[in-house]
Amino acid sequence: MRIAIGGAGIAGLAAAAFFARVGHNVLVYDKAPKPTPVGSGLIIQPTGQAALAALGSLDDLAKCGARLERLDGRLECGRKVLDVRYDALGPDIFGLSVHRSALFDCLHDAAREAGVIFSYGQEVVGAESVGDSVRLRFADGEVSPSAALVVDALGLRTPFVERENCYLDYGALWANVPFPSVGGFSERALAQRYQGASISAGVMPIGALPDSDGPMAAFFWTLRPQNYESWLMTPLPRWKDRVLTLWPEAAPVLDQISSHEDFILAQYAHHTAPAPVNGRIVHIGDAWHAASPQLGQGANMALLDAWALSLALERHETVEAALAAFAKMRGRHVWLYQTISRLFTPVYQSDSKLLPALRDKLAEPLSDFWFMPKLLASMVSGTLGEPLKGLKPS
Ligand SMILES: Cc1cc2nc3c(=O)[nH]c(=O)nc-3n(C[C@H](O)[C@H](O)[C@H](O)COP(=O)(O)OP(=O)(O)OC[C@H]3O[C@@H](n4cnc5c(N)ncnc54)[C@H](O)[C@@H]3O)c2cc1C
User: Fold this and answer.
1) Above pLDDT 90, what percent of the chain?
2) Running DSSP on this structure, what letter comes out for residue 132?
3) Which one of 80, 148, 317, 329 has the minimum C-beta count within 10 Å?
4) How confident is the model over 143-167, as a mean pLDDT?
5) Is beta strand 117-120 parallel, antiparallel or unpaired with respect to 25-30?
6) Structural domain tally of the chain?
7) What is the domain extent for residue 302?
8) Which of 10, 52, 174 to mutate for ligand 1's pocket (most ligand atoms within 8 Å of CB)?
9) Whose CA is nearest to atom 50 of ligand 1?
10) Is residue 364 part of a domain?
11) Which position has the higher pLDDT, 40 or 133?
12) pTM for this predicted structure
């Protein structure tokens, strides 16, 4: 069948590749003038790895990513406030930490090789039904060819879902730097430092980039988007001094940063659309469920949505039955992780004084409590709620 996809981000590209590989005629539209991976590092969790393996793209991505075995968050004094070890779930379980462009290229290549047709510079503003089919409407007044299904993979700002006040108070600045060879950083751990919940920094290994001489890292610094302008006015050395009071060992990372322009500002948001399906339009990825990246699930949930939707279309005779099955396959997992993200985000990023105080007292003793290592590893791996049941052949 013909499927029109709005959005060539992670969800849209993955869905396009899955659909085209089983013979659907797939058209993808994006408002960007050319393929554009925006952002910095992200972690492909075991759930996302399973989806990429089903697509045949995991091995290629693994070649340029970093194998992450641990998330290690501490206070300035060295006390642990986040300690996640993937191997609590088994020796072969890890996070694959990559630059967003590596994932983007891998999915884009898979989609293009499977025969997907891309149209860039097309801003989707809506959709209209014509009998049993549906087509996208663009800002220039044009429409797409009629399709049996429209997939809304337009991300947080999709015109198909009404959203108000979904932005969180805190976001972060992100920069790519060569992986620091001094300072005690491990290429297998994401390291973070916290002071309360409103100040934090992190160093995340992201493997090699096509134009890098060696392994790279993403450095991030919590910032309120409303303070971005005043941060831009702050001399860089003064800001670096502020970071160093929190994390002196970050000096070799900061030495690699020479300009405010080395950073991009990421705004975080939290929102869940009331339903993933509306007639012949289905929302996937952030268009359905956006969350702050504290739990590192967004890209993985987008990959799972794409995989589940493709399987549902294969397994059911009618589009309606497939969409109902898709909503059932993904609904519980989406609800669970949106709830966990809602609860945990303020513990690590907010103005609260109480939540980080409790965290600082309880996290270290609790993290060694008998079931906690496994629970924390499952939560971060994305496997709570068994999202792979019904997707992976048993
Ligand atoms: C700083 C940061 C770090 C993150 N870290 C992680 C992590 O470690 N692990 C993880 O799993 N997730 C992480 N995430 C979340 C993850 O990046 C998102 O959940 C994921 O990108 C969602 O993919 P998507 O395809 O749904 O949306 P997007 O990637 O936002 O793609 C949407 C696409 O639609 C296009 N578009 C938008 N509007 C229109 C329109 N009207 N018409 C046409 N085209 C349009 C855009 O150009 C874009 O190409 C992070 C996010 C941020 C911001």
Assistant:
1) 92
2) T
3) 317
4) 96
5) parallel
6) 1
7) 2-165+269-381
8) 10
9) 293
10) yes
11) 133
12) 0.96
